[in-house]
Amino acid sequence: xxxSKRVTDPLQIQLFGAVQVLYQGQPLKFRSxxxxxxxxxxAVEGGAHxxxxxxALLWPESDQQQGRTALRVTLGRLRQALAxxxxxxxxxxxxxxxxxxxxxxxxxxxxxxxxxxxxAATPPEAMQSALDHLRGEFLEGYSVEDAPxxxxxxxxxxxxxxxxxxxxxxxxxxxxLALAHFAxxxxxxxRWTHYAPFNESAHRCLIEAHALxxxxxxxxxxxAVCQQILADELGIDxxxxxxxxxARVKQGHIPRTDRPKMASPPAxxxxxxxxxxxSPVIPLVGRAAEYxxxxxxxxxxxxxxxxxxxxxxxxxxxxxxxAEALLDWAALETAPADVLRGRAFEIGGHLPYQPxxxxxxxxxxxxxAPDDLLDDIWLAELSQLLPELRxxxxxxxxxxxxxxxxxxxxxxxxxxxxxxALAQERPLxxxxxxxxxxxxxxxxxxHYLARRWSAQQIPALLLLTIRQEGLQTVPELREWLVGLxxxxxxxxxxxxxxxxxxxxxxxxxxxGDGAGITQFSDWLVNETGGSPFFVTELLQYLxxxxxxxxxxxxxxxxxxxxxxxxxATLKQLNAGPRVPLPPTMRELILGRLGRLxxxxxxxxxxxxxxxxxxxxERLCQVARLDEFDGLPAxxxxxxxxxxxxxxxxxxxxxxxxxxxxxxxxxxxxxxRRRLYHRQAFTVLEQDKAPAAELTFHAVAAGLNQPxxxxxxxxxxxxxxxxxxxxxxxxxxQALHLTDQVAVA
Length: 744
Prior knowledge:
Blueprint: E1 11-14, E2 20-23, E3 26-27, H1 33-45, E4 48-50, H2 51-58, H3 64-82, E5 89-92, E6 95-98, E7 104-106, H4 107-116, H5 124-133, H6 148-178, H7 182-195, H8 200-212, H9 216-234, H10 240-251, H11 288-302, E8 307-313, H12 319-332, E9 338-343, H13 354-365, H14 376-382, H15 388-392, H16 404-423, E10 428-433, H17 440-456, E11 460-467, H18 468-473, H19 475-487, E12 489-494, H20 500-511, H21 517-528, H22 532-544, H23 566-575, H24 583-594, H25 598-610, H26 616-623, H27 627-639, E13 643-645, E14 653-655, H28 658-667, H29 670-686, H30 691-701, H31 704-720, H32 724-743
Parallel strand pairs: 1-7, 8-11, 8-12, 9-10, 10-11
Antiparallel strand pairs: 1-2, 2-3, 4-6, 5-6, 13-14
Helix pairs in contact: 1-3, 2-3, 4-5, 4-6, 5-6, 6-7, 6-8, 7-8, 8-9, 8-10, 9-10, 11-12, 14-16, 16-17, 17-19, 20-21, 21-23, 24-28, 25-26, 25-27, 25-28, 25-29, 26-27, 26-29, 29-30, 30-31, 31-32
């Protein structure tokens, strides 16, 4: 990507955050989204592109002649839209490109130039300027209907630029700390944690910046927020690196040499690389019933009956994914919904009305004339939530004065009026993600909106996602949800793990018509226990490790993603040792284990030591728990889905999947495992368990003499049933134990 010339108020193409094209500070208008999409693609990709390629990108359903005609018309409209700023589109025969010799500013270019040179001593002004251009995600909230290949390209670019954004934040923060600009580093780190809330590097930067700025309490609070976010969102604990930094902060030791080195940006001459074809696109599966109910709820709302929908589930169950599926569909309708998106964060504590204000701000940034929606007196009230309105309308009157209740009522009412005004044009969806983190004021406002819009029959859907843990631990949130259901029609969707049938559907999507679908879906069930998060992480991990084998034909199916040879994948997986868990999955399980009570942990370890399905009584015996104490512990394990109750009457309880058992067993430590094996041996010996089982526990418990005795007996039992190979193994084990018994 070449560097543009810089003059005052040139053509500005802003692709981070809300998409805008400005000339002399004024937005240019485009006849359609595809006109703008053509400009975006040419400017970002650079170079010259075949006309047929561009036509296929934007009009995939058209034949060649129709596509060429549509492209020719769109190209003319693009030139017309840009004419006031200059001639930016060049044609060379059958090729079309963007003229980089003209004067313009492209925000992705600004960021690309700086991040590509981060290894050098980049001037602080250049780095800060690049960071200022990073107003949000690439093409945030922008989509083009009926152009899936463009959407796929945009998604790939979005992921790429998000990584570059992380690199830029890291570099700016590191430079500010090195220059002792600690207050500026705090501001940068706060922005970074909002940009990438699950990136621990961002949280470490904030912890360090606060500490070096002389605010150790804020640094410790930043660590607590990081800890809470990771636990609530992903069910994991902070990494040892983050924990160690927090400990040093608490002790007053803040070395400045412990920051990780930034990974070098990949070598590329383009603005971004092409998407890796072997990376799987994970479709939404197993949520057809829930999506159907959500779809019907939206249709009811669109007909003029306010609806509310709450998607509830544990972390990793795909709540946001389900909501986004509806929003994507609603945006592609002939009369697309007007979507306001907000998300509650715990970063920095509960900001008043933060999720609602964010939703309003993003929407009004796209509104050419908010004064067409509200009278000045109400815009003045709204400016209390959105102060930037006063810059846009400096002649607004002051808000009406009054007591706290009066002011709050006016604030609630102006948001209700704004939503009603927006819904006059098309159905409205107000989506609030992670409501369990929202402040009480936001909840009160949402309840007010539901009451007002319901009474006025506003065509609106109030769409919420809520963590199950939040409902269990925050009584006020439970009561609020009950109250919402009294004043509005509420649809509550509970998400559970994916079933074997769901994962078979996923395997079919990956393989197309290939072989190995059933076997691969069985493997996924055993490895993941049906957790959508686990499934996604495992498939991405296989792709990253080159273990997911692409089809030799490299065919693509209707989803646009490559086809995979699942039979060859399984053959490769089974040829070597067991595939290790991706770190994030292991950390997720460890985070869940860390929230258990001591008695639940003891019961779980007993199950891991026993190593198979067993009864409740056996679990309590090995854990040395009274059954009255063990019962709530078992209920805790079942509720958290670490253990499952099967249809087996003899041995009904088992681990949700083997990975949990492996991690529980490994993390227990050698001494604790030995004690539990000794107890298991004692219990099983009293019940006259098979000699082979007693041998296993005796060896693991370090009981050499009993191990020798039962190894011989196990060999004899194997011989009695003509299991000669097994008998040899047991007898050899007994011979090995002979020396240890003699030494003892």
